[in-house]
Design goal:
Blueprint (H helix, E strand, L loop, with lengths): L2 H19 L17 H5 L4 H4 L10 H19 L11 H4 L7 H24 L5 H31 L1
Helix pairs in contact: 1-6, 1-7, 4-6, 4-7
Length: 163
């Protein structure tokens, strides 16, 4: 991959991951509306109680979605930093088992999600050695975060109606 294309990929990934994980830019946005909160900024204003409440019988609560995104982003982070086995033993079911948190556990999960998102954003910003798996995985992470952000926004509407 040429240096110019590698820089373009890195810049595009930084933009999309920053938007979906943290907050959309006020001037230009590609997945969510300009200036809107991304996943982490949306979660910061939720209580542990609300995050642990399922919006419908049999459904997973917001905390499960947040933990699931963190699980996947952590794998991407490890893989981008050279862990050749990061995806080898991934068990996505584990990520969905967290269904209730205390206030301190919720704050810790959000903090870890924000740190991991920033770690991934940092590494994609400087990466000049893209291969198919890292390239596809990083773009998929932005789409994955956007999907769960949309699901969480809908869940919040459902929870507000139920109150």
């Amino acid at each position: 991959m040429s240096a110019d294309l590698a820089t373009l990929v890195s810049n595009s990934l930084r933009t999309l991951l920053s938007e979906t994980m943290l907050r959309a830019d006020k001037q230009a946005a590609y997945i969510i509306n300009q200036g809107e909160p991304g996943l982490v900024d949306t979660l910061k204003f939720l209580s542990a109680k609300k995050a642990s409440t399922s919006p419908r019988a049999g459904g997973k609560p917001i905390v499960s979605h947040a933990n699931h995104v963190l699980y996947g982003l952590d794998i991407v982070n490890r893989a981008m930093r050279g862990d050749q086995t990061a995806f080898a033993h991934a068990d996505w079911n584990v990520a969905w088992k967290l269904v209730q948190v205390s206030d301190s556990e919720w704050a810790e999960l959000i903090d870890k999600l924000e740190r991991t998102a920033n770690d991934v954003i940092d590494i994609v910003t400087t990466n000049q050695q893209w291969d198919e798996i890292s390239f596809t995985g990083c773009f998929a992470s932005a789409g994955h975060a956007a999907y769960h952000l949309g699901a969480i926004r809908q869940m919040l509407r459902d929870l507000e109606r139920a109150e």
